[in-house]
């Protein structure tokens, strides 16, 4: 594996995590959850959708700033748009079709949607890199947008304070300023289990203990497969940074600790020091949003690049996990431009600029938000009802908003 970025990977990255957020502590206290468990959450805020937001608006609002920073010639080379989501709005029509329209992408663009819980964006990334590396369309680019809506409410118990909503957009091409994929450097592990599922458009079910065990097993097994493919790979020394799928920070800490002890029998103080150096930078942004589903890993990558101090090219180990389950450990190189490329998105300032909701405001929104994915032939949505709340968000950009449904056709407008 080369230490110098070259090849294919992520050229640009952007995030939309809503215009509003609620304190994780407020949700804990409001639901009467055991305060002794709060430290394991290690989260500050979770993003909250407003009733005019859905997976389409999240996706468009994440991707539009990224596209606005592109030269027109680069934008016109987007030949594939992939949305990844477990928050589908139709059993047949993809979210990608709406996203394509409202981003104004060229008609010479393939549209596709992927689904495998929180793994789907990584599947899309690997497919994109393989497509581009095949050389059938030199200079082509792929836009991947992971977009999801949280259905978590009081039924979710301890998952509610850490389940976010939003989208992450990735532009993939042959000028990978953010992350260059290491060719052939991956390991996978998959099996069937019901650790979480969405059997209906307004119902999330989860087995927290089974999910934790599956996540830990998949990290261990997928890295073992990675090591079998990449000569000399060592979890402790090969990677300058680590970014893991982050349902909540406590799960990431447990996974890192288990693998360090399993592979090296490292003492607790050495594990803690390694965690602070290689993992903790990736957890800052996720601590402000909650779990963004398949966008979670790439928000963690952005956080690592925004908060780690890098003196030169660095190798990043990435772990993607999707319930059900499929997982992958892979790697890439970030070069001297990576931090600046991510900084262009101003992710941290935009997260801090969201309107803060109190617990009563948050719970008042839940019923409408939960109905967002429920099929309806006709529905009216008035974004103006939430103007006062939006006015509390600092430096609010123009947003795409859901305005209603007519004969099952979703209607959108810029506000």
TrEMBL record:
Domain Hydroxymethylglutaryl-coenzyme A synthase N-terminal: 8-174
Gene Ontology molecular function terms on file: acyltransferase activity, transferring groups other than amino-acyl groups; hydroxymethylglutaryl-CoA synthase activity
Gene3D superfamilies: 3.40.47.10
Keyword Ligase: no
Family annotation (SUPFAM superfamilies): Thiolase-like
Keywords: Transferase
Highest taxon listed in the record's lineage: Bacteria
Keyword Iron: no
Domain Hydroxymethylglutaryl-coenzyme A synthase C-terminal: start-end pairs: 271-366
GO terms (BP aspect): acetyl-CoA metabolic process
Protein family membership: Belongs to the thiolase-like superfamily. HMG-CoA synthase family.
Protein name: Hydroxymethylglutaryl-CoA synthase
Protein source organism: Streptomyces humidus
């Amino acid at each position: 594996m080369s230490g110098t970025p070259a090849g294919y990977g992520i050229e640009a990255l952007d995030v939309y995590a809503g215009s509003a957020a609620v304190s994780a502590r407020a949700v804990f206290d409001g639901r009467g959850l055991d305060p002794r468990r709060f430290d394991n959450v290690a989260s500050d805020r979770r993003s909250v959708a407003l009733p005019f937001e859905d997976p389409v608006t999240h996706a468009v609002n994440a991707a539009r700033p990224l596209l606005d920073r592109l030269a027109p010639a680069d934008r016109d080379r987007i030949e594939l748009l992939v949305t990844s989501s477990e928050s589908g709005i139709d059993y047949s029509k993809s979210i990608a079709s709406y996203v394509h329209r409202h981003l104004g992408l060229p008609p010479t663009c393939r549209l596709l949607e992927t689904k495998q819980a929180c793994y789907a964006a990584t599947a899309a990334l690997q497919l994109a890199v393989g497509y581009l590396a095949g050389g059938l369309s030199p200079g082509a680019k792929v836009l991947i947008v992971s977009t999801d809506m949280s259905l978590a409410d009081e039924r979710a118990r301890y998952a509610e304070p850490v389940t976010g909503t939003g989208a992450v957009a990735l532009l993939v091409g042959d000028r990978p300023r953010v992350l260059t994929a290491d060719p052939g450097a991956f390991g996978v592990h998959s099996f069937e289990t019901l650790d979480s599922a969405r059997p209906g458009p307004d119902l999330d079910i989860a087995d927290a203990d089974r999910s934790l065990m599956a996540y830990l097993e998949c990290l261990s097994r997928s890295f073992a497969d990675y090591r079998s493919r990449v000569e000399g790979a060592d979890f402790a020394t090969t990677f300058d940074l680590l970014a893991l799928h982050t349902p909540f920070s406590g799960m990431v800490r447990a996974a890192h600790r288990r693998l360090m002890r399993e592979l090296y029998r490292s003492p607790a103080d050495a594990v803690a020091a390694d965690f602070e150096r290689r993992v903790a930078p990736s957890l800052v942004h996720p601590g402000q949003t909650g779990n963004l589903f398949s966008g979670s890993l790439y928000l963690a990558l952005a956080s690592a690049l925004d908060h780690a101090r890098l003196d030169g090219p660095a190798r990043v180990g990435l772990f993607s996990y999707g319930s059900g389950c499929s997982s992958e450990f892979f790697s890439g190189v970030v070069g001297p431009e990576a931090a600046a490329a991510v900084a262009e998105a101003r992710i941290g300032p935009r997260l801090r600029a969201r309107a803060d909701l109190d617990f009563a405001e948050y719970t008042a929104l839940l019923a409408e938000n939960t109905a967002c994915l429920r099929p309806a032939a006709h529905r009216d949505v008035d974004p103006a009802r939430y103007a006062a709340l939006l006015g509390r968000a600092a430096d609010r950009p123009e947003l795409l908003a859901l305005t209603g449904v007519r004969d099952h056709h979703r209607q959108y407008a810029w506000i």
